[in-house]
Design a protein that fits this description.
This protein has about 120 residues and is mostly helical. It folds into two domains: about 70 residues, 434 Repressor (Amino-terminal Domain), CATH 1.10.260.40; about 35 residues, no CATH class. The chain has seven helices and no strands. Helix 4 packs antiparallel against helix 5. The radius of gyration is 17 Å and the shape is elongated.
């Protein structure tokens, strides 16, 4: 499941909406929504994200959060390390090899490290 898929499922559960009802309203198939929730489809289009925002009538921060989650929810990514240090290529390759075996705590630690770095660069 992707971060976007988890949020989508959460919104549906909170509002008591079935996948079939939501799919009909958004003019997509229930199978597509299911695949989106489970990370078996690529990130949703901007247009679909906006339709979901409108469907759930979310505003401001929650709408921005949905857009952010959609951006970071592509289940199959490619990392271009050409022109970077050899260590960057090693990191990308090792992460792709080892991520399936990492614990949630290890993943959370790496995400926290990236979050701290991002905060530093925004200052």
């Amino acid at each position: 499941m992707t971060p976007f898929g988890r949020k989508l499922r959460e919104l549906r559960a909170i509002r008591g909406v079935t996948m079939k009802e939501m799919a009909a309203a958004l003019r997509v198939t229930p199978a597509y929504l299911s695949a989106l929730e489970h990370g078996k489809r690529g990130r949703p289009s901007w247009r679909l994200v906006q339709a979901i925002v409108g469907y759930f009538n979310v505003i401001w921060d929650e709408a921005e959060e949905l857009e952010r989650l959609a951006r970071i929810s592509h289940p199959r990514i490619a990392i271009d390390t050409s022109g970077l240090a050899p260590q960057a290529t090693e990191l990308a390759n090792r992460l792709s090899e080892e991520i399936a075996e990492m614990s949630l705590a290890e993943i959370a630690g790496m995400l926290a490290l990236l979050d701290r770095r991002q905060k530093k660069t925004k200052r």
